[in-house]
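Hi W.,

Here's what went into the run:
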Amino acid sequence: MKDARNIKDLLYEQVARIGKVFSSPKRLELVELLCQGEKTVEVLAREVSISVKLTSAHLRELREAHLVETERQGKNICYRLANKAVAELWVQIHTLAEDRLIELQLALQKIATQPDDLVPSDRDSLLKAARKGEVVVLDVRPAEEYLAAHLPFARSIPLDELRQRLNELPKDRSIVAYCRGPYCLMAVDAVELLKREGYSAIHLRDGVAEWGLLRSQ
Amino acid sequence: MKDARNIKDLLYEQVARIGKVFSSPKRLELVELLCQGEKTVEVLAREVSISVKLTSAHLRELREAHLVETERQGKNICYRLANKAVAELWVQIHTLAEDRLIELQLALQKIATQPDDLVPSDRDSLLKAARKGEVVVLDVRPAEEYLAAHLPFARSIPLDELRQRLNELPKDRSIVAYCRGPYCLMAVDAVELLKREGYSAIHLRDGVAEWGLLRSQ
DNA sequence: AATTCATTCTAATAATTGTTAGAATATAAA
DNA sequence: TTTATATTCTAACAATTATTAGAATGAATT
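Here's what came out:
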């Protein structure tokens, strides 16, 4: 090995290309959205509240790091994660952030009106209860995202249809609402609405990415 | 929830603090070194071939992201990873990079003189062979790193002592040499030397971080 | 064929980060 | 107490990245 230093620099530089993707808040948000299923540039831009141009620039970085793939569908170009491992990395990064950053812990605590979020250890019991029909697992994300992947036994009522479709839900059982993950506030809103209307509602922080439910490849 | 956008921006910004740490080649290299055990600023600077000042600046970023902890030991300040999860994230990021980036795959292939690296699936059989004494697992990192953590059944001969201590190794069994991980070239050099000297040597790409052998907390 | 629409590319500027040098700090040794 | 050593802090400049605007592309619609 002549110049070990140059070789090493090259290797770490390559790995840093992947790291860079996860160093920008907006790119993280894009990755999390793509964890919910494939999306067009326009939809992504609207969801993260930035211009289409800027979204396109961020998506190019993801593309150049080979973390996303694109496919033209008529007029639109659809982006999807290249790999299940990308979603897993997002989950591991935000989990580590929640573990280490007190600021993040505090911010997350403020979101939850009550500290009744289900924690990961409850997964088995939640699944069992959902299977028996003792609780209703409610996916409040847009219908497409539910179709792309959803928790076992979950039923779909997107947040913006919830008010009109309240009658589909039982009042005698707990409703466990989830959305895209801990940084998505849809399930928080859903639980608030449900509680106001006299339902017994619980907020599940984790989404499909955190449950590892994404299709591989 | 009044201003969901502001809350979200705040949350993703916090996670990006963690991502930023892994977006710089030199910081990645520092993280990998810290996966081998605690180290002083001077040692870290020497290993990654940058000035102490710049190393200190990079380490401050790690500190501000709460991914490392410091402890004064006499004249020196020792840095260590805050958490096993930091090492796991490093492994997951470089694994994803190796999976997605063709450039990285090619660069890694060039390093290995022969493609006889043991792959992760061989772990069980390696362990079994090492336990029976059919192969010698050789840790060529500095002695302190071996002491901090090492593969099961591994014996320590640092690379720079290897030439003088060749007689400690058997010629009738395979020697499986490893170092800090796939981007560390010490094991490559060791295998080259051993082969030249008539030993049957194999390069194991993974190190203690990849084997998940670090002490928690 | 012309027009529209979604998206990307290019180039420019604003904002952030990397890097370096000099001053400051805090401990250890004399 | 003085001096040496290891490290950090501050401030400056260089390099990179984020953001925006305008031109270009390429498929769908008229």
